[in-house]
Amino acid sequence: MPNYHSMSQYFFSFIFIALFSLETAVGQTNSKDSIKLEEIVVTGSKIEISRKLVPLSVSQISKQDIESTGQMNILPALNSFVPGVFVTERNILGFGVSNTGAGSITMRGVSSSPNTDVLVLIDGHPQYQGIFGHPLADAYVASDVEKVEIIRGPASILYGSNAMAGVVNIITKQQHENGLKVNLGASYGSYNTQKYFGTIGYKQDKLSLFASYNHDQTDGIRANTDFNINNAYAKLGYEINQQLTLTADFSMAKYIANDNGPMNQPPVPYNINISRGKASMTLENKFENSEGGLNFYHNFGTHNLSGGFHSTDRNDGAMLYQTFKLSSGTNITIGTDFKQYGGTANQGYKHDSLITVNELAAYAYAQQTLCEKLTISAGLRLENNSKFGTEVVPLAGLNYNLTENMTFKGSVSRGFRSPTVMELYLYAPNPALQPERLVNYELSWLQSLLNNRLNLELTAYKVVGSNMIQVVGQGYAAKRENLGSFSTRGVEFSARYTFNRHLSFNANYSYLDLDEAMIAAPRQQMNVRANYRYKIWGLHVSAQYIEQLYTSTQPMVTQNYALLDARLTARPLKYLELFVSVNNLLDQQYQINYGYPMPGINFNAGFNVRF
User: Fold this and answer.
1) Which entry of 110, 186, 604, 607 is 20 to 30 Å from 427 by CA?
2) Is 196 a residue whose pLDDT tops 90?
3) Residue 519 gets which letter from DSSP?
4) DSSP-assigned letter for residue 314
5) What is the DSSP letter of 130?
């Protein structure tokens, strides 16, 4: 049996040797290929700021990265580009919901089913179902995304409950240049998998518009595992003046899916019919020494599942924040959030009655820069929940720029998750539950070399969790209790290398040390991607290795597997791109959700038209 610890050492050695051996060649490349861009993020501070100044671990996936994967949904791209993150899958298309659903996001070994420990945002406002507390994983289509920012580790200081393990902020596209842009595309692949989409962007002076429509469907890799979804999205922006911008958006997703259950059990047909939507309005301000925003959002939906289950839910809120930039090198952010979520369901302890939970929070976050090298960060959030009382959430961190290209970071942060309406009143209910909590300790090193062509990040962390909710008993006697605790430790490494305008590489590795087995939390994960472009051709190759992935703990079942994917593109005309993708070239037989085999070698091909 292979020694995986040795494999991780070989992996690090291979990456460093391969990347640094290119230094001489890069120095001889044409100067027009040089890269001077600094990575700017918003998710870790609410305003645009250099990633080097955020004490938390923040990753970013660009629009170009997303397009290179050829993914229809944005979540699988997290596996490829972000260390320490794993997303469960169960079919060629469609995550589904309920006990056998996928789309659960694990960060540093912290996850839940449904996915309530990682907060998903769209343009900074939260996305989760009002009763079950999880996002709708199938609604996040790649065509709408400008970039994705990920906080690896608790971000409750800024975002409150559900950000206990981390945050995924999906930042949508917006037209920036005057004129009209249109993108149309379609693809067809294995298992009768089809995608059709169209986007339109328009800008005229102060007014901008972006809209999209997506349709995805598949017959599924087994009988009675078909999936069909339609997504529509529209975003309108207006620049009131140089300081004020008003943005409003609206989206709807409707999907129908079937499931025959796990392969290791007799077939039990299960179907879902779900409609979900969201609307928001944001007024942003940006002055010379101050910037912030006011956001109102409304999430709503209905779920109709096998067995007659029906629910209607909503999640409403308002967010107000402002950052003040003082001349002394101090930035101070103050904010307040209000949320109300809940709904009705025809099953459970309090069926067919409207149940709502209110949250009101205030927070302050300050950064002080000393001697142009050291930045100290500290913050505190007070959040009052109508069911659980007040939660206190502190954060402390520092960033030290040893040189212009080398940064050290450290932080101690607290995260929490309030029990959902489902946990309180529906299945194995306990109205006396209290929030889950954890503390995260981490140290990071960021390094850029070779005129910013090579960017490295290495992070070590420890997570200690308590008050975790577990189900005790079986059948009608089942009840949820705050019994669980855990401790995890790990290392995350990522590297991005741009050889020239034709060739680039990125790689990441994560090692997770668990006190006890956890589902969807692999001990080791390695991802390597290479992108090559020459004239009209483009070749994108990715490899992933997963070691000791628990798919079940009763019985204990683990998976080791290696995946190899390739995507070939061609641009015979300026406005036309053709592509063909082949996935799982090694024809691996593996499972991510227990009892749900993933597809073997499969393909899809299609086109994009841009004008």
Assistant:
1) 110
2) yes
3) B
4) E
5) T
**Alpha carbon distance 371, 516 (integer Å):** 44
Q: Looking at the DSSP assignment, which residues form a beta bridge with residue 439?
A: 414, 464
Torsion of CA 4, 10, 13, 17, to 10 degrees: -140
Q: What is the DSSP letter of 110?
A: B
Residue with tokens 């994560």: 510
Would the CA dihedral through 376, 122, 337, 209 be positive or negative?
Answer: positive
Output the six-digit token pair for 599: 């597809």
Dump the DSSP string for 190-255.
GGGEEEEEEEEEEEETTEEEEEEEEEEEE--SSTT--EEEEEEEEEEEEE-SSSEEEEEEEEEEEE
b/e string for 204-221 if b means 16 or more Cβ within 10 A?
Answer: eeeebbbbbbbbbbbbbb
pLDDT band per the 50, 70, 90 thresholds, residue 514: very high
Regarding beta strands 166-172 and 118-122, do their DSSP bridges make them parallel or antiparallel, or are they unpaired? parallel
- In this structure, how many other beta carbons lie within 10 angstroms of the beta carbon of residue 534? 9
Domain boundaries, the chain: 4-610
Q: Of 410, 127, 149, 414, give the one whose Cα is nearest residue 295.
A: 127
Other beta carbons within 10 angstroms of residue 527's beta carbon come to 21
Average pLDDT taken over every residue of the chain: 90
> Candidates 2.40.170.20, 2.40.10.120, 1.10.287.1080, 3.40.50.300; correct CATH number of 4-610?
2.40.170.20
Cα angle 455, 460, 462; round to 5: 150
Q: Is the dihedral of CA 67, 70, 74, 78 positive or negative?
A: negative
Interatomic CA distance for residues 123 and 248, integer angstroms: 11
Q: Measured between alpha carbons, how far is 188 from 92 in angstroms, rounded to an integer?
A: 12
**Residue 311 near residue 343, CB atoms below 8 Å:** yes
Which pLDDT value is given to residue 5? 46
| Predicted TM-score of the model (pTM) | 0.92
User: Distance of alpha carbon 420 from its chain centroid, rounded?
Assistant: 20
At 37 the pLDDT is 59
Tell me if the bond preceding 83 is cis, omega within 30° of 0. no
Concatenate the DSSP letters of all residues of 365-388 into one string. Answer: EEEEEETTTEEEEEEEEEEEETTT
Burial degree of 294 (CB within 10 A; 0-12, 13-18, 19+) = middle
DSSP secondary structure of 295-308: EEEEEEEEEEEGGG
How far, in Å, CA of 512 to CA of 82, rounded? Answer: 14
Strand partners, 464: 439, 487
- Give Cα separations from 326 to 12, 47, 53, 367, 419 (angstroms): 42, 15, 16, 10, 39
User: pLDDT exceeding 90 applies to what percent of the chain?
Assistant: 74
C-alpha closest to that of 337 among 394, 375, 384: 384
Rounded Cα distance, 455 and 241, in Å:
37
Q: What pLDDT does residue 372 have?
A: 85
Q: What is the pLDDT of residues 351-369, one digit of tens each?
A: 677 899 999 999 999 999 9
